[in-house]
Amino acid sequence: MAQRFDYIVAGAGAAGLSLLHHLEQAGLSERRVLLLDRAPKTHNDRTWCFWEAGEGPFEAVIFRRWGRLAFHAPGFSRTFDIAPYTYKMLRGLDFYRHMDERLARWPRLTRLYGELEAVGDGFVRLEGQTYTADWVFSSVPSSPLAPRPPYHHLLQHFRGWVLEAPHPTFDPGVATFMDFRVEQQGEVRFVYVLPFDERRALVEYTLFSAHLLSELEYEAGLRAYIHEELGLREYRVLETEAGVIPMTDIPFPARLGERTLYIGTAGGQTKASTGYTFQRIQRQCRHIVQSLAQGREPAPPPSPARFAFYDSVLLNVFAKKRYPGAHAFRDLFRRRPAPQVLKFLDESTTLLEELPILFSMNVPVFTLAALDVLALAVSRKR
Ligand SMILES: Cc1cc2nc3c(=O)[nH]c(=O)nc-3n(C[C@H](O)[C@H](O)[C@H](O)COP(=O)(O)OP(=O)(O)OC[C@H]3O[C@@H](n4cnc5c(N)ncnc54)[C@H](O)[C@@H]3O)c2cc1C
Fold first, then answer.
1. pLDDT digits (tens, 9 = 90+) for 255-314
2. Which pLDDT band holds residue 380 (cuts at 50, 70, 90)?
3. Which atom number of ligand 1 is nearest to the Cα of residue 243?
4. Mean pLDDT of 245-251
5. DSSP code of 146?
6. Contacts 24+ apart (CB under 8 A), 219-223
7. Does the pTM exceed 0.85?
8. Cβ atoms of 276 and 345 closer than 8 Å
């Protein structure tokens, strides 16, 4: 006999736990819920950064906040005030623990651990047992993501260190959003620096490219940056973080049949041109929960098609190496106010607000890329 629930949440990562947060906010924490994952989260497997105006849902566990962001490219350096936004850092482990504490008070929540054998329409299978629900929300990818020409497919990959300098080195009021003053080697390569205090910071060497590097290559890039730009010869590495985020316009399935919805990265919430996902997950979960609370069928939030088009154009520029990433981001930050750029990347701008942003880019290069994206879309339809 299959065990029955109101909701099954497959995957207790950012999306699964965010969905439960929003369910609780909507007064739905008394429902019969099954939450599944491979294993309990016991270490800090990732750190999320995002920008937000005002207070957000996880304000109590935000680790650091910055009101100013720095951008550097060869020949151009600027520090911006980003009001009304604040750039925030949330450590994975703080988030998991915070949610664990809250979920311990849910009266009818069941948590199970193991490798999911199947996620189907309205059911999941774990260790030979089938569980069914009115609604299944899955952040477990339906299949491994692989390149699918003619769609664009890049990876955002990075390796970083939380390091401790022997003397005051960082300005804790300013996070370095992107620093392109590193060897580009024909790719998009940059470093970001998130200072915790004057001596400690997360320094992350990041690429947008088709292929991963060896551990040694990321670390060589990190060492060179720390030496040349931070001016540090001695420091201690306190923690290491590494990750790979898909940057692709391959369409992700929004649902599996009628009763199962994909959430998080598996549900296409990673922004193709930047890799930022956390805030989009909040928007998606909020939208789904609003529908549930109103007794309607849950569905992903609507998203204007033009933003997906802009993302594809930027991916096309990078994948076809039409224009260096350092120049593209420099043009943007040189010509437009940083809060407008952040609003645009958040997909919250109106078309009228977007025009000056689009015209701040290299128009001939981006027009060619846009025509290519349109031609690829037509070829896919044939
Ligand atoms: C290192 C790293 C840093 C990132 N930093 C940022 C950032 O700064 N800002 C930002 O916006 N985005 C960031 N991202 C991207 C994105 O926000 C995260 O990947 C986010 O965790 C995605 O949430 P998710 O719930 O979709 O996936 P996850 O958080 O990965 O959750 C999926 C869950 O499903 C479970 N699972 C998967 N397969 C199975 C299975 N077969 N059986 C059982 N359980 C399974 C996993 O154990 C996991 O807990 C980062 C990603 C990484 C990898």
1. 999 999 999 999 999 999 999 999 999 999 999 999 999 999 998 898 899 999 999 999
2. confident
3. 1
4. 95
5. -
6. 219/159, 221/182, 221/183, 221/189, 221/191, 222/159, 222/160, 222/161, 222/191
7. yes
8. yes
Backbone angles phi, psi at 197, to 5 degrees: -160, -165
Q: Residue 94: its pLDDT value, please?
A: 98
Residue located nearest, by CA, to atom 16 of ligand 1: 277
How far apart CA 59 and CA 219 sit, in angstroms, is 33
Task: Among 17, 36, 139, 202, say which to mutate for ligand 1: greatest number of ligand atoms within 8 Å of CB.
Answer: 139
Ligand 1 environment, Cβ below 6 A = 11-16, 36-38, 46, 48-50, 115-116, 139-140, 241, 243, 245, 264-266, 276-278
Q: Ligand 1 centre from 278 Cα, in Å? A: 9
Amino acid (one-letter) located at 72? H
> Which atom of ligand 1 is the closest one to the Cα of 37?
44
Q: Tokens in use for 338?
A: 């940083």
* CA-nearest residue, atom 52 of ligand 1: 243
Backbone phi, psi, residue 74, to 5°: -55, 125
Annotate 89-103 with b (16+ C-beta within 10 A) or e (fewer): bbbbbbbbebbeeeb
Would you state the pLDDT for residue 326? 97
pLDDT band at 379 (very low <50, low <70, confident <90, very high): confident
